Amino acid sequence: xxxxxxxxxxxxxxxxxxxxxxxxxxxxxxxxxxxxxxxxxxxxxxxxxxxxxxxxxxxxxxxxxxxxxxxxxxxxxxxxxxxxxxxxxxxxxxxxxxxxxxxxxxxxxxxxxxxxxxxxxxxxxxxxxxxxxxxxxxxxxxxxxxxxxxxxxxxxxxxxxxxxxxxxxxxxxxxxxxxxxxxxxxxxxxx
Length: 191
Fold this sequence. Notes:
Layout: E1 4-14, E2 19-28, E3 34-43, E4 47-54, E5 59-66, H1 68-72, E6 79-82, E7 84-87, H2 93-105, E8 113-119, E9 128-135, E10 153-159, H3 160-169, H4 175-186
Helix pairs in contact: 3-4
């Protein structure tokens, strides 16, 4: 099916942190039917995430940090175990994820492998997330002082098998982390 979009009108609703717009438009379908739609769209920019893994040890590095939206939606402590990630700040996805890996985990990774990219919540958010992986070794750990500004972050190194079990039993609930762990599992990185 193909569609055309006509008469797009945009109204800025909020610009506190990022931008929230209300779009009114006509959607024209293949058969010529025109439907007016109204959608709120949150533009927070694009992001990148990375799975740090060590095949020799059979481990991955994740971070645990407070996430207010999860708290509001029923996560009792608001802490979330997840892959390192961040928003692109006028840099490439590769530059962004190297910076974020250092800031959030203390590991300086040189070679990063782009796996794929995905819209994470296309019903209301513009963000594309770029997914990466990099092998890490203990000599790449540059600092234990992680997090910037007001971030509260714990670095968690755990066996890959335990991360898979945590995903299966619901202790890991972050979508990007689940996607990265499943990618590693499907591609037999730890066999």
